[in-house]
Amino acid sequence: VNYFSKNAIGEIIALGGSGIFADTTISRLADLIPYISAVEDIRVKVKENQRFDLPKTVQAKTNKGTLAYVPVDWNLTNVSTSKAGTYYFTGNVKNYGGTVHLELIVEPGPVKVDTLRAEVIQGAFYTLPDKVIVTMSDNTTEEMSVTWSTTPNVSILNKIGTYTFRGTVDGTTLTTTLSLKVSQDKAIEFKDRNLEWAVRFMIGKNASTQPIYLSEVLQLTHLNANGYGIKDLTGLESFSNLTSLDLGNNFLETRALNTIQRLSNLEYLNLRNNNLEQITPLRNMTTLTYLNLSLNQIKDFSPIRNLIRLKSLYLMSNETQDFSPARLYYHQLIDKDFTL
After folding, report:
1. Reduced to 3 states, what is the DSSP secondary structure of residue 197?
2. Pair 199, 327 in one domain
């Protein structure tokens, strides 16, 4: 009786029938047989190219309220995980009238990892990041842990030069590098006093007549210079650790972009309401996730074609209304001011 209560039995045959067993015994045995009343559907997630085998058994619930694992026959035997997507399989369990459903989600796999750049002042302390941005096969990105083969030591940080560190993305064969520039401190020269004033305000030095030093600007990851009337960005090339730059509502022309393109860590860039006519220098700024180019005189948006990480993009009020260069990643834009 204990066995019958814990297992799903398809059939019991009483050998000899009523000649050996009393009819009441046979009837009682039939009542004891637990049959399958429901089978739990299965949902599995794997990474692209990760091996996956369909399970040989599935969990079933019996009419007695017990759970049992029973064999299942699937409609397919071979499963490919070579392409990201969601795949559905059905299976049959003997003596169960329903269908077993399995949903297999193949998540995009990592295909490319960013290379990194950073700059510190001679004698400063620096720690390598523990995560890097990895591009998946569907062009989405994820932060993943990285293990570095070496780390910056006191000797390196006290010697001017550029040093390369190599790392491996955990759980993958992808490798990356970080280029660390150790620089001597120096005063930054600005040709545009309005830009200098914006920087002084950001670092809390607006009441001082002392120069602005490289050691101070390397501490900045965000610079807000919106509406200062800036025409020349000379000096901004030293802000190599910036990830966010707001230059909206100024008087910048296309040549200013030659300075901006040197800021390889930028993710946020606002150039709204300037005097830009062409944006070719932006074509390799593939780390950008936010870009505002509205209210300029831009005639061609082709240079933004490969900026596939963009989540926010503003292009309206320019000389051209051809926004097709953004078609590749238009579906992933969360914020935008145009339609395709």
Report:
1. helix
2. yes
Determine if residue 259 is left, alpha or beta; phi over 0 gives left, psi from -120 to 50 gives alpha, anything else beta: alpha
| DSSP per residue, 229-248 | -----TTGGG-TT-SEEE--
Beta-carbon contacts of residue 79 (< 8 Å; ≥ 6 apart): 52, 53, 54, 87, 89, 104
Tens digit of each residue's pLDDT (9 = 90 or more) over 125-161: 999 999 999 999 988 899 999 999 999 999 999 999 9
* Radius of gyration for the chain, computed over Cα atoms and rounded to the nearest angstrom: 32
**Would the pLDDT of 4 be above 50?**
no
Instruction: Give me the domain span that covers residue 23.
Output: 2-107
Provide the number of structural domains found in the chain: 3
Whether residues 265 and 229 fall in one domain? yes
User: What CATH number is associated with residue 25?
Assistant: 2.60.40
